[in-house]
């Protein structure tokens, strides 16, 4: 064999091996994307610097908003914790999953119920696709063994089973404001199905959530994963670790936000270091609006009216951010999106199957994420407990019942004539147009009635899974 033939053969072999290598690396790139859902507790629409707060600094979250999509009309399906979390994980309004009733709004340490096991969560949906699934943070969908995250599709759980202010020695504003110490709330910290610390050391809890999240991502760098990261702050009582205390001009609330923001920065740099940032969808949002009765310890809804517990915009419109370099087309989206839409959107991006035996209220937003097309969502129902208080269709929102946040001066008003706002012109809900537009009110009524029929079509749902408190 002469020399030139040998060189030719070597070149050929080298090019085959290069091709195989590049096919392997292409296969890695094309694998199903990882999904991280960061779900804040009681963070208001106005509590990020990228959403207009003048003194809270959130550079890492802001980067996701600027390099990804910042949604300015993004809603959570309930203005309180448990139903909001159930809706996000199932893509269904709380009323359909047993979490919309008078007695079922929020779980407490004495509650005996939880998210019904028959419900299919994003974790279960993705587990069927071979994903590793983890939840790090606050669960709040039932703390008894049969309702824990490990029974709802999660391989790994680290966090608290209900809110960080529960199981307290007493409840009252002074408890939150007078130098709170962690022993005042007997909150358990769990790993999988075991209580590993009680009371949870809330000074270090944010830091530990981040560390666990980084470890989970690193362990699963070679296989698709779903990480649900519901940080238990900025729900009061507020605690920050030593390195963040007294660092923000917004006070303790700002310290706590800085620590969460730094944690999110660590998570993103972990994705970059592992070279999986382009294969990972990161979603950032909040479970409900700010808890205004907590005064300076509560957040801000910015220009929106009222906060947590209400069906005014401040109770249910929250920051919405989607980030995935190379896939999510950067920009500001003022079309509607909701936490209900995460399940179908994630299904579409990962190739998972949406549960077909039940009504899913979410819609697939993936085309908006990729191509900035018009959002397929044009309607949204604002529930309080089991009642529809308000409805939005495109730019118009009608209120049928209004009520201030619970506790204190709680006033429910069933309105003789609904209020009508053009929510695009008037996000603060100041200027009522019901007299000028009876035809729009009529249209909104039809929509509500049509929706109610879909609830009537599953009448046994709530009875089937009685949840007591
Ligand atoms: Mg909350």
Short description:
With 469 residues, this protein is an alpha/beta fold. Helix content is 29%, strand content 19%.
Calculate the mean pLDDT score and round it: 90
Give the low-confidence spans: 10-29, 458-463, 465-469
Strand adjacency order, main sheet: 6-5-4-3-7-1-8-9-2-10
**Which distinct ligands sit in these coordinates?**
magnesium ion
Q: Any idea what the radius of gyration is? A: 23 Å
Please provide the count of β strands.
14
Largest sheet: 10 strands, mixed
**Beta-strand content:** 15-25%
Structural class: alpha/beta
Into which percent range does the helicity of residues fall?
Answer: 25-40%
Helical segment tally?
A: 12
Based on Cα principal axes, name the global outline: globular
Terminal CA distance reads: 85 Å
Succession of helices and strands? HEHEHHEEHEEHEHEHEEHHEEEEHH
Features:
alpha/beta, 19% strand, four-stranded antiparallel beta sheet, 469 residues, 29% helix, disordered C terminus, binds magnesium ion, ten-stranded mixed beta sheet, 12 helices, single chain
Helix/strand layout:
Blueprint: H1 3-29, E1 34-40, H2 59-67, E2 69-75, H3 81-90, H4 122-127, E3 132-136, E4 156-159, H5 173-177, E5 189-191, E6 194-197, H6 205-219, E7 225-229, H7 252-273, E8 280-286, H8 313-316, E9 317-323, E10 331-338, H9 342-350, H10 366-371, E11 379-384, E12 387-393, E13 396-403, E14 412-422, H11 438-456, H12 460-464
Parallel strand pairs: 1-7, 1-8, 2-10, 3-4, 3-7
Antiparallel strand pairs: 2-9, 4-5, 5-6, 8-9, 11-12, 12-13, 13-14
The structure holds magnesium ion (MG).
